[in-house]
Amino acid sequence: MKASILRFVLKRIALGLLTLFIVSLLIFAVTQALPSDPAEAILGREATPEALEALRADFGLDKPIVVQYTNWLSGVLTGDLGTSYATSTSVSEYIGPRVGASFFLLLIAAVGSIPLSIVVGANAALRRDRKFDTTSSLVSLILAAMPEFVVGTILTIIFSTTIWQLLPAVTYLEVGAPPWSDMKGLILPVLTLLIAVTPYVARVMRAAMVEVLESDYVEMARLKGMNERTVLWRHAMPNAVGPAFQVIALNLAYLAGGVIIVERLFNFPGIGSALADAVRSRDLPVIQFLALIIAAVYVLTNLLADIGTVLVTPRLRTRLK
User: Rounded distance, CA 55 to CA 49, Å?
Assistant: First the structure.
């Protein structure tokens, strides 16, 4: 069993690395295909041809595309992310604190949303067609239909402006400051992300739990005289959580991109503002690295979801033998 699980994990890791390699090719190709010239964006249209050529040589833009890609990829693998065109500082120094702040925001949202959605979905299934199930299904459907910026705006109106003035409408963190130094300012961004993820996972958890509770092996466990708590936690929950893991992974990966909107809305100094500034200034090294980071989050979350699904689902574990 352990050997089969190890082979499964190694195959998933190899597939994830191959996916990232293909994504890196696409990211580099798309950024190179942009119609604007980074040197012209920095120096302005009035710059002399000599100055433009000199700046392109400094950035390595005068080299063949294949050489530029291999230099960039080798730099990523060795930790040398290059120099930001706009700030003339290393990409790692410029982006590092922002990436850390964004991951902290995502971590808090994930820690809150995952158990909440599982509990809500499981309880809705246990109370199927009752008041709690109907109410939670309606509320989750409404919340799932609203984009993050709408949810964030509504929360700001309720808690920061018109109704109650309990929380700051924006965060006041400086770039590089620990994100936990303004916990009060994190409440609205975290609530927005939590509301963006919880409805989808709760609905999938409810559907999976309903299907498991109606299965033959759960009915057999009840006929054997097991108490309901044992049936739920030993037989129903492990098999219902498996499908929910996939949706959790997709939603957490989605947050890696959706966090950009939330950060801009609440003035949070994360990757959102950095990516917006990089696009405006045609800062290709920053754009490429942030796009690769977001892709890596997608691949990693799906890898963990695949492994977690197999580990918590008895039926899938037996198929690996």
Answer: 10
